[in-house]
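hey can u run this one w/ C2E bound, need the structure tokens asap thx
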Amino acid sequence: MNDNLEKIMIDAIPDGMLLLDSRGTILRTNVALQNITGYQAHDLVGQNLDVLLPRRLHGKRPLLLARYLAAPAQRHMSRNRSRLLILDRNQAPIPIDVALNVCKLNDETCVIAFIRDLSHLKQLEKQVNYQATHDSLTGLVNRWQFIRLLNNALITPLSKQRALAVIMIDLDHFKSVNDNYGHSAGDKVLIQIANRLRAALRPNDILARLGGDEFMVLLTHLDSPTHASKITERLLGSLKAPFQYGAHELNVSASAGVSLAPHDTNDAESLMRFADISLHQAKTNGRKRRVFYSPEMSHDLHRRLRLQDRLTLALQSNTLQLHYQPQVDLATGAVVSVEALLRWTDAELGMVRPDEFIPLAESTGLIEPLGDWVLETACTQLAQWAAMGLTPRIAVNLTAHQFHHEHLVNRLNSLALRNRINPEQIELELTESSAMANPAKARDIMLRLAEHGFKLAIDDFGTGYSSLSYLQMLPIDRVKIDRSFIARLHHSEEDQNLVKGIISLIHSLRKEVVAEGIETVQQLQFLHQQGCNSYQGWYFAKALPAHDVSSLLQARTAHEIT
Ligand code: C2E
Ligand code: MG
Ligand code: MG
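ok here u go:
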């Protein structure tokens, strides 16, 4: 073959090529090898292979070569499991794969090595690994990597690293940032949050984003639980200053749940679950706080999950009941209205109080079907009473979620229409907190309800934050004084004066006053004297099944006729 053609062919080989004699002297290279290493052909030819090898291999090289030449065989690429490297002209290591073959040259056995540059592959591998272990938005490690790191940390003898803590952080109401400003705003704020959390940690602490607005932290080498507590406070504190999004300043708070090893458990999965349970507790306790795990929380959670399951079942199997507590007009003594109160006796759990299952339903979303069932049942009941010539008003309790539901007004209208009910027969009871959370929005909803003729009452008055000037602006018909004030009436004159004051104040706003929880004749007399408009309480009747209330309502009609 002519020399030129031979050179053209060798230089066309996509892999780097080295021809070596039995001592490892480089006899020939090609263009691809020169491209990989940055050397020119004349830099290499005549040199020993060692020029391309890391120093640690220089001693081993003659032996390896001799061993290969003693039993030469063709070796393909991808045979080597160990990481092979050569050094380029700048002594930088390059990951490579090698194929070997032998040939005879002037009676000497020579080695031909084909060398493939794996830098791109390694780079790609690095990228893939990075993606598999990191959150793309914030660059923090992801859940998978966090679990790996946590497991690693737990393998290290705990004596060496003293205590370890897992902190789960969830932003409070972060959804509203996305809803109000869009997802790109949400993303930008999340990046700022990640940066602030990172800055609040020690260099070796691990911060992960689990997705959405959830973060998880691993603290090692803690001196005591107090140490973990301090760092958690610092984390939550770092979010206090508002976040910048364009011209807007956004306020974000967070809740945290903390579990400790070895204090709570030594197992990664349990540590994460315990942190999650504690976080849930922090949210239930009012957010913006941190809660450390305690075993009772697991029991609470267990109960909650069971209640949730059983309540779903009760809804499906229609085993809930609606009872009605009469409200008595103090001027006439007649039962003018009733309050619908849910009753649930579960086959396995026994009687469950609304105070327990309503907040649960509210936080799990079950309140939607549950509240709807209550409205539907109450309206059907009104239709049945109407057929008996009875037209009481039914007061129905609404949670904040139900009150803010976009279809509330439509749903009520269609129920009233279908059951031929005058909307004035339906009174909706709201607590101060659901009315005050977003006053302007609450006022709009109330105005729409009032426009359609529905009645409105503020429930449990005096137990939450209330603004009286604001109360005046709302189209409220009645205000229900919470039963805790009534229960204290006999304690002191001061308590009596307080109730007196509340009643005259509500009257000055031209709203009616309903007293809740009347249990004694003394309480009744006092309220009567103060001009309270109506009352409900065990003194007159507890909440009763519909047919028991029918007779009380009929008595009312009888009373009115006579
Ligand atoms: P609430 O709306 O303030 O209802 C009055 C509560 O006081 C009822 O408790 C009632 O049984 C109780 N009560 C009435 N008279 C007396 C009395 O003389 N003495 C005492 N000690 N208590 C009296 P209940 O039925 O356990 O309901 C508790 C709360 O659960 C209700 O407070 C209401 O906020 C909520 N709830 C009940 N049913 C529903 C419902 O259908 N939907 C919604 N959203 N909430 C409901
Ligand atoms: Mg009520
Ligand atoms: Mg009440």
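The mean pLDDT is 91. anyway lmk if its weird
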